[in-house]
């Protein structure tokens, strides 16, 4: 039996591919075949395939954005054959909640992340700043401007600017949450005409202008990672997985000078963005190979796999953010200085209640409706144009409001 | 070549290509037409219903629609202008006697062999990247601020990348045409007292007109469909600054999974492409018969 | 022009041509150079001398097997080219040697089928492929590429055949050859240069086709276009690895192109001669 | 056997009538030459006989068998094209062998027949070459070789020598004549070269605008042209055609006299005239004389003649070789 | 004025010497024809004069001015190419107007001059057509038109008629001759057609392997060929060249006699022989006779001769027109 597995091309997944001998040794009758694709292409491919029931993949790597949507369509197989020793209850509750519907698990998390601030302790020290335990945006803005040293090529803060629902919109949505805003009100009316979004975007645009790096409008996670590793950013607010990269002395020039803090919030708003993301393995509903597929998923997301990675590649490289047990592991804590802040960030995230205001949707840095990919990207384009200096904040918001209304009306949310 | 028998045989031999292409054209086109009148979102199959002209209205009223059409034209015309003019100049240069002509030619045609996504990746990451790109380094070396190409000049950047890919093609066709120019004709013009510029204007350029037509025709076909370069580099932005029609459809089809809308877009694009084709044939097609 | 070209002029032409050629080739050259750098080196500013590491290639190969997609690319582009030739040789014969008033229109219509935006018909095509079991098969991709490139192939062959004097085919007819034999024994061998260059161009176009090949194939039939799609934006430093992957993806066709440059040039005349 | 008969053959391309109606009979072993001005339908007629074009009306019979609807390959004819139409990618051997191969002959037969043909045509040492490596004359021989191996009922030649230079044409002309003597196969030969037509033909067919103007042996045509067209067409330099008083005197609308049948004298003669251009070929001189009341007359004289431009001369046509034509252009 | 003088002109392509050394003087208004076998350097010489090739050595002077290093356009010559080299995308008018336009003439001047030229060449009604829509003869006239509008010091023609059919060649030949009479401009004309060379030239230059074999008027060359090469090259049919006893008898290595200078008799004569092929042209008959002890001899006789294949005849060469050549091939 051959399983065709669609995966994203990030480091953890690649590592898993290299370790599959362990799995095939245990399951000699199962062969694995990999389709590794860049995130956007992967999403596009698996979505087309599952929606048309193309049946090309037995195991799909999907985000916690897709899981509830697909599960609702009945496209995913319930994962009930993961084995007795799988220990579902060990999964982080926030993560697990995002992958379950009516108490049934439809995907198993391979790794998970939230977002937090990474900052340069040395620069902060130099500038005489001290990172508070719960920094506010006001503080972040001040600190960023203070640290910025254009002559030395140091930007006070690096933030995502590249257009895309999973790029700048992930960050901006989380930021808006922490500003007390939301995407939609209870009647699915878009909220870009509300002051929260205006504050968010204005603050963001000004900050990027004053303290952001060159070409910020095309920077995504990866570009910022590179900048930070090169020592060119004073702060960086992004996914928690980044911590393992910036603290890795092999690639990072600032590995020993990184401090971590929780996602900022606006003064008076008790919300830290609610960023929560996980890459998960799932099985299409019609699969003939459901049993073997679950065997594989069970292996790949098990504690055993974690130990396997730890043994072969060291504890710092194990996939983070899925199991409580990992954060209780002393060895991990020792190898990964970012373990505690990561766990704190994950615990703080609640995707069922992203905003302080009531919302009709779930999802932290995204809105878990099918239309969000398209809509988020379109809005992302507009906001990216603001960063690029091609559009004013007000225009961007007005247009964002307009396209959102249009899109939501077409999709039938707004009656 | 003109007996009844050969004629009917000829029809028979033409049939497979025509039939295959007909199927290739009509089946998807028919399906596209059909879908274009359906409310059909891949992610929401339950909501499928008849939509009338909603999809068309929706696509047509997309805030990016008119800009996309304008961008499509800018890309096509911009790339054509660069490749045709650049191609002529380059062909003239390569036609001169020189050392290492073979290698030069190989170097010049190489971009044609690069697959579009790779070309876009190379330009985006190696050349135009505002931080690590070669152009940024050069700018810094010259004491200037690096240009953030994809943010500041998104459409121009796309045009440059696409033109880079097609310049070799144009150069090659024009070079071949140039070499087919009758030597005696050039000599006659020389005897008639024409200097280099006049020879180019009155002899070479008219001779190239047919080849230029071919370049324009073939490239237009491919240029109307440019999308991979956009997807890899600007993703259509910032704003809609680099969204062309093909990319708009792409966005509708593979980001919103709006099959109905994308189909309507496809139908609109087919219609527009055929208008362009008709226009092209009117404008330059007669050059082909000469 | 048998007059002596002054060495001065030749030198100027040489310098100008080399300069421009190097500028045009630079992105490719720089990619190749970068592929031999270490990652930190790759972003450390322009330098044309790499440290000569092969690490990136090893890494790329470890991440994703190169040879299977390479083989797929070869099979698909060659296969589609051959099928397209088989279909279009008779068609071009009939258009070139037995033209009617509609021949030109048919030709233009064929070319216009290429103007359809592929993404607009992706879902229909996906459904057709799913139902015919062609998803993720080399056969499926071969068929698609054949159809995608057929118009260009027909057109190129047509312009080629038109340059062959009809008298020779008539001679074959007088010599007792049937139409099939006429095409097989006389026309095809005579058009070998044209057919060869048509083949080359088509192989290049097929090799580089990156919409259908990525979307209709997954694991088994995925060619190099899909290979590169798994490197385009990973996490961490990737310039050098991306360069290595890019180099691997374009190297075969680039080398083929270099070696067959002369042939290709002939083919690109598109009847522009005469 | 190789008789060919055209009955009421007509040919139109679309609405344009190219051949209004032709009847023609060609006997076995005859060497027939089609001549006529460019566009007169010579090639078309040949191609109709070959079957490369469909007739629009009428019938064609070869050896008594109606072949009007028979494919070219089945008519048993062989054709030598103006451009030779050799297969450039095949060796000389394979070029000659091609018709035999198509006929499905055995290897040995092919080998023997090709070698025989090559011997006859002096091509033995070139059998391995490609046509591109041959001279014009050799190419023409290969084309003939390809025709003779099959032992066709008849040969069709469409201006086979027109691509050659003057010297080679002379030689090849003799060779074709030689071949006809050897094979005694019917041959139809299209040319617009006077010398070829006169020296090769048993019978010349003069075409004009798709119509047959006259059929006859070369000397018949030279001596008794049936009409003005033939008179003007056959013979070089052209026959002098004179209208007006001089013609009326002979009871004809037009009289014709060939340049070689006029004698020049400085002292006396029938027509008085002034010498114009004189073309000295060494062996002959073509004298263009403006004769009073008659018009321009071309005279062919011997090589050595001492007449200057503008001199007055007297011309006397040979009365026995005078041609008279009526108002309808037909010979009287 | 239009004198052209070549002094010690040599030309090599790389290591191959094409023209070892040529000296030549052409007087104003002269019509000079270059003849010679293919590859003998006729075109090369013409192109050297035109300036389209650099000389490897020596000097070229036009009207006494040294032009060896002068660009083609500045030499004041006009050239008519073998392929005419008309500009296919321009109308006839524009083709003819092109040199004037390049010279920066005013609109009116151009218009007038082109119309004048068109009138002279009978092209008036074709001025709007493209070259592709013209017949061969018309094209040639356009090429000439393009040359004459500029009133050049001299015309250069490189085989201008070789693309035309025989009839048209005759006409065009006369037209060129006419033109020369009218314009009286120096003309250099390359051809390998006997008749053209003989009828057009004031002076013929015979080239062979890049060497000038003889220079002289057509009749000089016909009557007194300087050597075997010229003897064999000038005259048609070729001069009979006889070696052996018959030559020895005249004290020469080779003797030559032209076909038109041999008389045939059935009864008596110098050489006995057997009749081979007889080519009847109507006006003449070319008799191929195998003469005993002498070899094949071609004889040209009058139209009406009644000799059959295989018959015995006697040939008598005209002793006054016998040519004698020594062992080095030079005339004695
Ligand atoms: N396929 C065709 N369609 C229309 N007209 C044609 C076609 N082929 C020939 N013709 C016309 O038929 C006439 C006779 O042509 P044909 O080739 O038989 O002349 P020809 O006597 O062989 O002339 P030439 O000496 O120039 O070869 C010409 O006027 C020509 O234009
Ligand atoms: N560019 C060149 N390079 C080398 N050899 C050349 C070149 N051009 C001409 N030749 C050689 O010079 C010789 C003379 O050529 P040229 O064209 O002058 O002959 P020609 O007398 O005009 O012959 P034809 O009657 O065939 O036109 C030939 O042997 C030819 O091969
Ligand atoms: Mg003809
Ligand atoms: Mg020449």
From TrEMBL, chain B:
Name this protein carries in UniProt: Sorbitol ABC transporter membrane protein /mannitol ABC transporter membrane protein
GO cellular component, one term: plasma membrane
UniProt keyword terms in alphabetical order: Cell membrane, Membrane, Transmembrane, Transmembrane helix, Transport
Organism placement in taxonomy: Bacteria, Pseudomonadati, Pseudomonadota, Alphaproteobacteria, Hyphomicrobiales
Locations listed in the record: Cell membrane
Membrane-related topology note: Multi-pass membrane protein
CDD domains tied to this protein: TM_PBP2
Keyword Membrane part of the UniProt annotation: yes
Native organism: Pseudaminobacter salicylatoxidans
Residues covered by the ABC transmembrane type-1 domain: 69-280
UniProt GO BP: transmembrane transport
TrEMBL record, chain C:
Spans traversing the lipid bilayer: 12-33, 74-94, 106-129, 141-161, 182-205, 238-259
Signal peptide: none
Domain of life of the organism encoding this protein: Bacteria
Biological process, per Gene Ontology: transmembrane transport
PROSITE patterns: ABC_TM1
GO terms for cellular component: plasma membrane
Glycoprotein found in the keyword field: no
Localization per record: Cell membrane
Residue ranges of domain ABC transmembrane type-1 in the record: 70-260
Membrane-protein topology: Multi-pass membrane protein
Keywords: Cell membrane, Membrane, Transmembrane, Transmembrane helix, Transport
Protein family membership: Belongs to the binding-protein-dependent transport system permease family.
PANTHER family from the UniProt entry: INNER MEMBRANE ABC TRANSPORTER PERMEASE PROTEIN YCJP, MALTOSE TRANSPORT SYSTEM PERMEASE-RELATED
Protein name (Swiss-Prot/TrEMBL): Sorbitol ABC transporter membrane protein /mannitol ABC transporter membrane protein
Organism of provenance: Pseudaminobacter salicylatoxidans
Species lineage: Bacteria, Pseudomonadati, Pseudomonadota, Alphaproteobacteria, Hyphomicrobiales
TrEMBL record, chains D, E:
Membrane topology: Peripheral membrane protein
Matches recorded under InterPro entries: AAA+_ATPase, ABC_transporter-like_ATP-bd, ABC_transporter-like_CS, ABC_transpr_MalK-like, ABC_transpr_MalK/UgpC-like, Mo/tungstate-bd_C_term_dom, NA-bd_OB-fold, P-loop_NTPase
SUPFAM superfamilies referenced in this protein's UniProt entry, alphabetically: MOP-like, P-loop containing nucleoside triphosphate hydrolases
Gene Ontology CC entries for this record: ATP-binding cassette (ABC) transporter complex, substrate-binding subunit-containing; maltose transport complex
Keyword Plastid: no
Domain ABC transporter: 4-234
Keyword Ion transport part of the UniProt annotation: no
Gene3D superfamilies xref list: 2.40.50.100, Nucleic acid-binding proteins, P-loop containing nucleotide triphosphate hydrolases
A single MF term (Gene Ontology): ATP hydrolysis activity
Location relative to the cell: Cell inner membrane
Pfam families in the record: ABC_tran (PF00005), TOBE_2 (PF08402)
Entry keywords, A to Z: ATP-binding, Nucleotide-binding, Transport
Primary residence: membrane
Signal peptide: none
Family of this protein: Belongs to the ABC transporter superfamily.
PANTHER family: MALTODEXTRIN IMPORT ATP-BINDING PROTEIN MSMX, MALTOSE_MALTODEXTRIN IMPORT ATP-BINDING PROTEIN MALK
Protein's name according to its UniProt entry: Sorbitol ABC transporter ATP-binding protein /mannitol ABC transporter ATP-binding protein
Organism per entry: Pseudaminobacter salicylatoxidans
């Amino acid at each position: 039996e051959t399983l065709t597995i669609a995966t994203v091309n990030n480091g953890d997944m690649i590592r898993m591919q290299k370790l599959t001998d362990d799995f095939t040794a245990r399951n000699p009758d199962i062969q694995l075949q990999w389709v590794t694709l860049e995130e956007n292409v992967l999403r596009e491919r698996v979505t087309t395939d599952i929606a048309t029931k193309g049946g090309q993949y037995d195991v799909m790597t999907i985000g916690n954005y897709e899981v509830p949507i697909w599960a609702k369509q009945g496209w995913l197989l319930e994962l009930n054959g993961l084995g007795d020793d799988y220990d579902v209850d060990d999964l982080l509750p926030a993560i697990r909640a995002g992958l379950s519907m009516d108490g049934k698990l439809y995907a198993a998390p391979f790794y998970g992340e939230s977002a937090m601030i990474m900052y340069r302790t040395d620069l902060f020290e130099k500038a005489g700043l001290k990172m508070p335990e719960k920094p506010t945006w006001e503080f972040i803005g001040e600190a960023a401007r203070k640290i910025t040293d254009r002559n030395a090529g140091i930007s006070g803060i690096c933030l995502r600017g590249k257009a895309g629902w999973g790029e700048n919109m992930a960050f901006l949505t989380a930021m808006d949450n922490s500003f007390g805003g939301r995407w939609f009100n209870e009647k699915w009316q878009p909220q870009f005409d509300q002051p929260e979004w205006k504050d968010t975007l204005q603050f963001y645009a000004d900050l990027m202008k004053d303290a952001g790096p060159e070409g910020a409008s095309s920077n995504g996670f990866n570009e910022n990672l590179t900048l930070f590793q090169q020592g060119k950013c004073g702060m960086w607010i992004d996914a928690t997985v980044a911590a393992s990269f910036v603290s890795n002395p092999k690639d990072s020039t600032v590995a020993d000078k990184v401090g971590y803090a929780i996602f900022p919030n606006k003064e008076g708003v008790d919300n830290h963005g609610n960023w929560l993301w996980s890459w998960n393995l799932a099985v299409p509903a019609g699969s003939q190979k459901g049993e073997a597929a679950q065997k594989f998923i069970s292996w790949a997301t098990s504690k055993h796999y974690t130990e396997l990675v730890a043994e072969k590649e060291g504890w710092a490289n194990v996939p983070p953010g899925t199991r409580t047990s990992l954060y209780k592991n002393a060895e991990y804590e020792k190898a990964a200085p970012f373990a505690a802040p990561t766990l704190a960030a994950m615990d703080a995230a609640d995707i069922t209640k992203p905003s302080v205001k009531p919302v009709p949707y779930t999802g932290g840095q995204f809105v878990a409706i099918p239309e969000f990919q398209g809509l988020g990207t379109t809005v992302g384009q507009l906001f990216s144009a603001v960063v690029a200096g091609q559009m004013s904040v007000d225009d961007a918001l007005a247009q964002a409001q307009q396209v959102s209304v249009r899109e939501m009306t077409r999709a039938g949310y707004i009656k | 070549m003109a007996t009844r028998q050969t004629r009917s045989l000829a029809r028979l031999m033409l049939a497979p290509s025509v039939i295959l292409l007909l199927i290739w054209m009509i089946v998807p086109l028919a399906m596209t037409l059909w879908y274009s009148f359906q409310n059909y979102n891949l992610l929401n199959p339950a909501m499928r219903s008849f939509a009338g002209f909603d999809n068309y209205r929706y696509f047509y009223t997309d805030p990016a629609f008119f800009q996309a059409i304008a961008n499509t034209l800018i890309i096509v015309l911009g790339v054509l202008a660069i490749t045709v003019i650049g191609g002529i100049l380059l062909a003239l240069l390569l036609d001169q006697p020189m050392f290492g002509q073979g290698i030069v030619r190989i170097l010049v045609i190489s971009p044609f062999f690069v697959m579009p996504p790779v070309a876009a990746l190379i330009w985006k990451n190696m050349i135009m990247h505002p931080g690590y790109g070669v152009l940024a380094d050069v700018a810094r070396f010259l004491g200037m601020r690096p240009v953030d190409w994809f943010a500041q000049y998104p459409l121009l950047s796309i045009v440059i990348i696409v033109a880079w890919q097609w310049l070799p093609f144009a150069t090659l066709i024009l070079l071949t045409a140039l070499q087919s120019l009758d030597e005696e004709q050039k000599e006659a013009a020389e005897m008639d007292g024409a200097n280099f510029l006049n020879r180019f204007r009155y002899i070479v350029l008219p001779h190239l007109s047919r080849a230029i037509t071919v370049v324009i025709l073939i490239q237009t076909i491919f240029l109307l469909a440019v999308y991979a370069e956009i997807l890899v580099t600007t993703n259509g932005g910032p704003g809609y600054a680099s969204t062309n029609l093909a990319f708009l459809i792409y966005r509708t089809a593979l980001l919103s999974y709006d099959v109905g809308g994308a189909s309507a877009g496809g139908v609109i694009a087919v219609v527009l492409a055929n208008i362009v084709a008709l226009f092209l044939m009117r404008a330059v097609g007669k050059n082909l018969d000469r | 022009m048998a007059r002596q070209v002054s060495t001065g002029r030749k030198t100027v032409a040489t310098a100008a041509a080399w300069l421009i050629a190097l500028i045009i080739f630079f992105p490719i050259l720089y990619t190749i150079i970068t592929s031999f750098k270490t990652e930190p080196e790759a972003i450390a500013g322009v330098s044309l001398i790499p440290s000569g590491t092969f690490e990136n290639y090893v890494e790329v190969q470890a991440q994703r097997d190169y040879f299977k997609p390479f083989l797929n690319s070869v099979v698909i582009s060659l296969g589609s080219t051959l099928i397209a030739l088989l279909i279009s040789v008779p068609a071009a014969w009939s258009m070139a040697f037995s033209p009617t008033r509609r021949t030109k229109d048919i030709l233009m219509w064929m070319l216009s089928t290429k103007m359809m935006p592929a993404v607009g018909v992706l879902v229909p095509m996906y459904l057709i492929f799913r139902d015919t079991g062609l998803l993720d098969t080399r056969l499926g991709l071969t068929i698609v590429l054949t159809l995608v490139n057929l118009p260009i192939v027909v057109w190129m062959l047509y312009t080629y055949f038109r340059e062959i004097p009809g008298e020779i085919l008539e001679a074959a007819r007088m010599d007792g050859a049937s139409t099939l034999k006429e095409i097989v024994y006389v026309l095809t061998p005579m058009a070998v240069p044209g057919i060869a260059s048509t083949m080359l161009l088509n192989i290049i176009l097929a090799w580089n086709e990156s919409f259908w090949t990525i979307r209709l194939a997954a694991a088994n039939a995925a060619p190099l276009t899909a290979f590169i799609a798994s490197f385009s934006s990973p996490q961490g430093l990737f310039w050098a690895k991306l360069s290595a992957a890019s180099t691997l993806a374009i190297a075969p066709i680039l080398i083929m192109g270099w070696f067959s440059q002369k042939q290709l040039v002939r083919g690109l005349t598109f009847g522009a001669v005469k | 056997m190789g008789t060919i008969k055209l009955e009421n053959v007509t040919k139109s391309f679309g609405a344009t009538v190219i051949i209004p109606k032709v009847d023609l009979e060609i006997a076995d072993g005859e060497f027939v030459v089609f001549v006529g001005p460019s566009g007169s339908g010579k090639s078309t007629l040949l191609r109709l006989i070959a079957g490369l074009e469909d007739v629009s009306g009428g019938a064609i019979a070869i050896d008594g068998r109606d072949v009007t609807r028979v494919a070219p390959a089945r008519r048993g004819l062989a054709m030598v094209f103006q451009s030779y139409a050799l297969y450039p990618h095949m060796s000389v051997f394979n070029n000659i062998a091609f018709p035999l191969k198509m006929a499905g002959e055995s290897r040995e037969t092919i080998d023997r027949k090709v070698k025989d043909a090559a011997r006859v045509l002096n091509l033995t040492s070139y059998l391995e070459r490609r046509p591109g490596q041959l001279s014009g004359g050799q190419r023409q021989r290969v084309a003939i070789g390809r025709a003779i191996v099959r032992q066709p009922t008849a040969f069709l030649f469409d201006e086979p020598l027109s691509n050659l230079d003057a010297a080679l044409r002379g030689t090849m002309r003799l060779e074709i004549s030689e071949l006809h003597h050897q094979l005694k196969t019917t041959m139809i030969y299209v040319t617009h070269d006077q010398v070829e037509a006169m020296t090769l033909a048993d019978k010349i067919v003069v075409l004009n605008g798709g119509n047959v103007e006259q059929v006859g042996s070369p000397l018949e045509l030279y001596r008794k042209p049936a009409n003005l067209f033939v008179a003007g067409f056959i013979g070089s330099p052209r026959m002098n055609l004179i209208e007006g008083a001089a013609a009326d005197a002979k009871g004809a609308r037009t009289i014709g006299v060939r340049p070689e049948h006029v004698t020049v004298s400085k002292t006396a003669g029938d027509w008085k005239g002034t010498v114009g251009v004189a073309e000295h070929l060494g062996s002959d001189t073509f004298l263009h004389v403006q004769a009073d009341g008659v018009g321009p007359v071309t005279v062919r004289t011997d090589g050595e003649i001492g007449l200057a431009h503008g001199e007055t001369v007297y011309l006397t046509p040979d009365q026995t070789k005078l041609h008279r034509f009526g108002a309808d252009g037909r010979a009287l």
